[in-house]
Design goal:
By secondary structure, the protein is of the alpha/beta class. It has nine helices and eight strands. Strands 7-6-5-4-3-2-1-8 form an eight-stranded parallel beta sheet. The protein is globular, with a radius of gyration of 17 Å. Bound molecules: pyridoxal-5'-phosphate.
Length: 217
């Protein structure tokens, strides 16, 4: 599906919700996609991209960035503490802050680097044992802990369980964000970004609908 079509669907969802399309960031999730598909989207002028692995992003984005200026890169996958520094040098936003040890490591490197990516706390809204993210009962405390570290906390992120109605999770995430005075909401993927926008998403993470199916080699 062409990028333009995704953008017009976002615009329509914003119109339905009485929202300004400028308040919804489209993160084109380029993980695993071949470079020619990514370059085609860059050639169309898009500049916000998402990757879920530090190593994979480090392998392709420095080269793209020498050719295409103004790229903003968002980390949407799990981050190990030993890769924090590299991630902070590569990414403009990290959507997967999910434990205090990680927040502490980010704070330490922010001191050294003098800069820090925008941060989102990943919330395990479905309380799934295999999934990353802060549990619902712990979110408010964790938000306070991250704020106490003086980090640029922008909002919350969730990945709903595959077998549940995503809107319920989007609404829940929005409610938790509101009571914590957080405006950023990273939610919605290829199959559900319109309902995420209806419920307040500020960052939708869309991969296969833009680039086509991911082919794992
Ligand atoms: C891969 C991925 C996406 C994009 O998924 P699509 O279904 O291809 O749009 C969004 N968010 C996260 C966290 C992902 O890992």
């Amino acid at each position: 599906m062409p990028l333009a079509e995704i953008k017009s669907r976002i615009a329509a969802a914003c119109e339905d919700a009485g929202r300004n399309p400028a308040d919804v960031n489209l993160i084109a999730v380029s993980k695993v996609q071949p470079n020619d598909r990514v370059a085609a989207v860059l050639d169309e002028g898009h500049r916000i991209f998402g990757e879920n692995k530090v190593q994979e992003a480090a392998g392709k984005w420095p080269d793209f960035r020498t050719v295409y200026k103004g790229v903003a890169l968002h980390l949407i996958g799990p981050l190990q503490t030993n890769k924090v520094k590299q991630a902070m040098q590569l990414f403009d936003a990290i959507h997967t802050v999910d434990r205090l040890k990680l927040a502490n490591a980010i704070a330490r490197h922010a001191q050294d680097l003098g800069t820090c990516p925008d941060l989102f706390i990943q919330v395990n809204t479905g309380e799934e044992p295999q999934k990353a993210g802060i549990l619902l009962a712990d979110v408010d405390d964790f938000v306070a802990q991250v704020r106490a570290l003086d980090l640029p906390l922008k909002g919350l992120m969730c990945i709903p369980p595959v077998d549940e109605e995503p809107s319920l999770h989007f609404a829940l995430l929005a409610k938790i964000a509101a009571r914590n005075d957080l405006t950023g909401l990273s939610m919605g993927m290829s199959s559900d970004f319109e309902s995420a926008i209806a419920l307040g998403a500020t960052h939708v993470r869309v991969g296969s609908a833009i680039f086509g199916d991911r082919v794992y080699g």
